[in-house]
Known about the structure:
heterodimer, A: mainly alpha, 3 helices, B: alpha/beta, Rossmann fold, 4-stranded parallel beta sheet, 6 strands, 13% strand, globular
Amino acid sequence: xxKLYTPADYVPIFIQLGLxxxxxxxxxxxxxxxGPKRRGKVKDEAFECxxxxxxxxxxxxxxxxxxxAILFVLFxxxxxxxxxxxxxxxxxxxxGFFEMVTFxxxxxxxxxxxxxxxxxxxx
Amino acid sequence: xxxxxxxPEGYEGQGFFATSFDKVIGLARANSLWPLPFATSCxxxxxxxxxxxxYDLARFGSERPSFSPRQADMLIxxxxxxxxxxxxxxxxxxxxxxxxxxxxxxxxxxSGGIFDTYSVLQGIDRIIPVDVYVPGCPPRPEQILEGILQxxxxxxxxxxxxRNEDKYKELLASYNILVD
Lengths: 123, 180
């Protein structure tokens, strides 16, 4: 708490990061160059239990999965913001309380919009 | 009492053990042959009971059966292979990664069995190279285990360069399996 950290003190973290990425890159390149390679027309085809593969795997996926996931992320971040408020609840006093109520109110307006647009309806 | 495999010949000292690559790699490969069960008929049921708890195959290292050829070592063909199924079997074999071994379980896979007819392939060695044949109709799980143990002996003694030799390439070419 009393010691001041200069930016130069953070250099070991970047060295560690560099070593980790360097190890990964080196082993990937080395195995690609040194490893055995065996290619064949039939061998490289996609495995479809022994029969010919038809078409590619690009099918459209329904959007409800994405919407649920992205709304989860948003409201999860809101919950994370509530943690420090909960810990310092008494020191923040009435002012902090009304700030949090405003924050949640803005997000609840968004939630009301979501419910009215039937985004959470699964069928 | 857990039974462990004997160590190969090598020079032992204080805290180290030196041996040759092919002994160690052969040992590792032999005791971890992951099967790809290509089970078609009754022999498939016998294979299922070999994998189950009474005749547990996993205790010999075949811990993870995979139904994808990309991650399997040994192809176990159990059951009658019809001529219509033959290109499917060949495709599955070709898509396996080296080193790969083939175990032929049951009379129908070895030679067509009692079905000497127009629709049954008279033995899978007409389309893919086979390493160990397990005869029987169907063979008991103990016999299938014996076949796998024979394959393990085979694997332990195999030379590391075998898959790159010309002899092996000619063998594959004779089955019309073109690699590289």
